[in-house]
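Summary of Year 1 activities. Much of the first year was spent building the evaluation harness for sequence design. The harness presents a backbone, in tokenized form, and records the residue chosen at every position. We chose the following record to illustrate the format because it has been used consistently in internal testing since the harness was completed.
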């Protein structure tokens, strides 16, 4: 039963990390929405990451995760690390999607969800003594729950896209 609660707490922390940028965009609108890649194009002529990966989003993921982590029984440092790694995973997914020709904010099931969940879980494996079945379960739960949650957020006007 302890693994179930740990998995649920990790899933909540990952959800906050990944929705922090959306909350910040809703609250701050266009303020501090500078793209992380500075609008740079890669050698293939496509954006390095795309305009939707912003410093505001990175900062909000780190800050909100650090603030929520103690409520969930983790240290603020673990929360900040989770937020940062989740955004690194998201940026790696965006980089890969641009190379595959998927436009900014374009959909790619699996690639849109897994890197932002798996990267933090892999790094936290040792410090939190996470088992491989738990890591797999949290990643699969995130994959399966993120898509309907994104659709709901889109219907509520919280997200620009339903994915």
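For this record, the design step produced the sequence shown next.
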């Amino acid at each position: 039963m302890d693994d179930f609660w740990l998995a649920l707490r990790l899933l909540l922390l990952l959800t906050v990390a990944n929705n922090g940028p959306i909350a910040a965009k809703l609250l701050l609108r266009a303020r501090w929405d500078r793209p992380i890649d500075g609008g740079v194009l890669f050698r293939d002529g496509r954006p390095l990451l795309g305009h939707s990966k912003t410093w505001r989003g990175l900062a909000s993921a780190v800050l909100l995760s650090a603030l929520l982590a103690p409520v969930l029984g983790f240290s603020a440092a673990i929360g900040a690390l989770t937020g940062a790694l989740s955004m690194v995973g998201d940026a790696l997914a965006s980089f890969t999607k641009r190379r595959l020709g998927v436009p900014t904010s374009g959909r790619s099931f699996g690639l849109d969800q897994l890197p932002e969940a798996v990267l933090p879980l892999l790094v936290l494996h040792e410090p939190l003594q996470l088992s491989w079945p738990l890591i797999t379960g949290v990643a699969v739960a995130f994959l399966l729950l993120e898509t309907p949650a994104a659709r709901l957020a889109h219907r509520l006007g919280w997200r620009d896209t339903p994915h």
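The chain has five helices and no strands. Quantitative recovery figures across the full test set are reported in Table 2.
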